[in-house]
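Module 6 notes. Inverse folding takes a fixed backbone as the condition and produces residue identities as the prediction. Think of it as a translation problem where the source language is geometry and the target language is the twenty amino acids. Below is one complete input and output pair. Work through it position by position during the lab.
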C-alpha cells in the first residue's frame, strides 16, 4: 500500500518511479519538475554539491533586447545542499478544488489518477534554487512547508499562484520569515512554427567545447540581467548543456551574436531557455531566428511538445514568441523567502 501524506527521498530514480506517472499526465504543466529530475538522473553530479547551475525554471527567460532584457532523503537526514524530492498521496479521496490545478486540464489530471492511493502532488528542491511544486491541494502545500521541509533552508518557491500562496503562508507562519514576489512567468507551447521573415544575417550552429568560455561569460551576464535569486555555477551549467548539444549559437560572419538553450528531452517534451543576446547585438532579430531554429530542430529530433517561459513583466518577449508560433498555457509565480 502506498504511504499516505508526503514521502521524500534523495534518490531521483525513486522519485521518477513514484511520481513520474503523475507528472507525465500533464507534462507541460510539470515541465520544470520533469526536466530538472531528468538532468539529475542523467548527470548525477550536477546537483549533488548544492551548487545547482541554471536553470530549474526560475529563470527560463530571455535577455536579448528585442525579446527582452531562462534551474530533497527524508527531511533533515539530508545535508543542507543536497537535492530533495517528494510526492504526496491523500489520506482520503481528494477534496473539491486544488491549488494550482484548475480548469479542464487540471480536473482531467486529477480524474486520471488511479485509485485513492495515487500521487496527487510532487515537489523537488535543488539548493540554492527555490522549491518547485506541481499542482496540489492547498493543505498538501501547507503541510510540505510547515512540516516536511521544516528546518531546511529554503530561498523561495516556484508554483502556480494558489499552491505558492499556501506554501509561503505556512512557511512564514512556521519560521517568522518574510515573503516577497520575485517573478511572474508565463508558459508557452509551440503550436505551429513561423520563423521571422525576413531572416536576419547569419546562421545557427550547435555550440561546442571551444565556446565554453564565451558562453560562461554570457550565462553570468544573463544571470545578472534577469535577477536570478541564486548564484549558480555558470561554468557547470554550460558544460551540462554542451554535453548533449543543448546550446545553439547564431553567428554572423563567424561571430557569435546570440545563444539559445534547450533542456534534455523527457516525456516527449523539451523547454527552450535561456535565450541571451549581448546588448550591442540586440534589435536585429537574432534571438527570434535562433529560437525558431532551435524549436524546429527539437521537433525534428522527436519532441512532441516544445515549451518556453517568459517574464510577464516583459511584453516584448511575450509578443515575439507568439509571432514565432507559441501559445499561452498557464502562469506561475516565484516567491522569495527571507528568514531575517
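Target side of the pair, the amino acids:
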Amino acid at each position: 500500500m502506498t504511504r499516505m501524506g508526503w514521502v521524500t527521498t534523495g534518490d531521483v530514480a525513486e522519485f521518477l518511479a513514484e511520481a513520474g506517472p503523475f507528472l507525465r499526465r500533464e507534462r507541460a504543466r510539470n515541465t520544470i519538475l520533469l526536466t530538472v529530475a531528468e538532468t539529475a538522473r542523467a548527470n548525477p553530479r550536477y546537483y549533488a554539491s548544492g551548487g545547482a547551475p541554471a536553470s530549474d525554471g526560475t529563470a527560463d527567460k530571455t535577455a536579448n533586447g528585442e525579446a527582452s532584457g531562462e534551474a530533497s532523503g527524508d527531511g533533515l537526514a539530508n545535508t543542507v545542499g543536497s537535492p530533495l524530492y517528494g510526492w504526496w498521496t491523500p489520506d482520503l479521496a481528494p477534496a473539491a478544488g486544488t491549488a494550482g490545478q484548475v480548469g479542464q486540464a487540471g480536473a482531467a489530471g486529477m480524474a486520471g489518477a488511479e485509485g485513492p492511493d495515487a500521487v496527487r502532488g510532487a515537489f523537488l528542491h535543488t539548493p540554492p534554487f527555490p522549491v518547485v511544486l506541481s499542482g496540489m491541494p492547498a493543505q498538501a502545500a501547507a503541510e510540505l512547508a510547515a512540516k516536511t521541509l521544516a528546518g531546511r533552508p529554503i530561498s523561495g518557491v516556484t508554483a502556480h499562484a494558489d499552491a505558492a500562496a499556501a506554501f509561503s503562508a505556512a512557511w512564514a507562519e512556521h519560521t517568522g520569515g518574510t515573503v516577497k514576489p520575485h517573478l511572474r512567468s508565463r508558459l508557452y507551447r509551440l503550436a505551429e512554427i513561423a520563423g521571422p521573415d525576413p531572416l536576419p544575417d547569419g546562421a545557427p550552429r550547435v555550440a561546442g567545447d571551444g565556446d565554453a568560455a564565451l558562453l560562461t561569460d554570457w550565462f553570468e551576464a544573463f544571470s545578472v540581467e534577469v535577477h536570478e535569486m541564486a548564484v549558480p555555477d555558470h561554468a557547470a551549467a554550460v558544460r551540462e548543456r554542451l554535453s548533449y548539444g543543448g546550446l545553439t549559437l547564431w553567428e554572423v560572419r563567424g561571430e557569435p551574436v546570440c545563444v539559445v538553450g534547450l533542456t534534455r528531452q523527457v516525456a516527449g517534451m523539451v523547454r527552450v531557455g535561456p535565450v541571451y543576446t549581448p546588448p550591442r547585438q540586440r534589435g536585429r532579430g537574432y534571438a527570434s531566428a535562433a529560437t525558431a531554429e532551435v524549436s524546429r530542430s527539437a521537433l525534428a529530433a522527436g519532441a512532441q511538445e516544445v515549451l518556453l517561459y517568459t517574464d510577464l513583466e516583459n511584453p516584448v518577449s511575450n509578443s515575439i514568441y507568439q509571432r514565432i508560433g507559441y501559445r499561452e498555457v498557464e502562469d506561475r509565480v516565484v516567491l522569495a523567502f527571507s528568514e531575517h
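Reference fact for the lab report: Confidence is low (pLDDT under 50) at residues 51-61, 65-78, 93-98, 100-113.
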